UniProtKB/TrEMBL annotation:
SUPFAM superfamilies: Ribonuclease PH domain 2-like (SSF55666), Ribosomal protein S5 domain 2-like (SSF54211). Phosphorolytic 3'-5' exoribonuclease that plays an important role in tRNA 3'-end maturation. Removes nucleotide residues following the 3'-CCA terminus of tRNAs; can also add nucleotides to the ends of RNA molecules by using nucleoside diphosphates as substrates, but this may not be physiologically important. Probably plays a role in initiation of 16S rRNA degradation (leading to ribosome degradation) during starvation. This is Ribonuclease PH. It comes from the Bacteria.
Amino acid sequence: MRPSGRQLGDLRPVSIETGVMKHAEGSCLIRMGETHVLCSATIEDKPPSFLKNSGLGWVTAEYGMLPRATNSRNRREAAVGKQSGRTQEIQRLIGRALRAGVDRSALGERQIVIDCDVLQADGGTRCASITGGWVALRLAVNKLLASGQIVSDPILDHVAAVSCGIYAGQSVLDLDYAEDSTAGTDGNFILTGRGKLIEVQMSAEGSTFSRDQMVELLDLAEAGCASLIAAQKAALGQ
């Protein structure tokens, strides 16, 4: 039995509320169970310097966690004076994942920055950030298309992410903190709407895992991401 009472292949309850920030070109609040992430997209009229005169655009991300997103207070990284290695790794992952679903030539020489701020954490914050970040990106691109600043849609496909792992000897979908903190194997899967893999992160935390178990987790992830993409479409009225 999972701590939440869910079946092995059940996602936590998912909701995506769009338009939650007045000034951002795209924004949403994604809730996956007790993990809540505020995602916003900002359009900048020029790309980073390394892409100047290349004809290519860029999508990048920044990630952060509020001090009381967890059960004990974490110091703000701004107060410490530097980002943790975990924060840097996660925001690079979000950026890589979202760029995989974008035609950067069609985007033109501009940058879209996705900010992901964790309001409450209960496992799977990077996956929720990617899934919600894509919605914010979609909304920002819609504004570029509506204003005529770009003529063809640079969004190639949906992008969503979900965690899977081996908990109490069983393959389970969408780990919450109670499972994530004790799972024997932990993995994050990022997929497109067509079911193509963008990135897989898997590691044995307390015991090794077999090839068959890896395939079980991938099957769970494919089904989970399909459900998350359905939630993205519903939030966008598609």
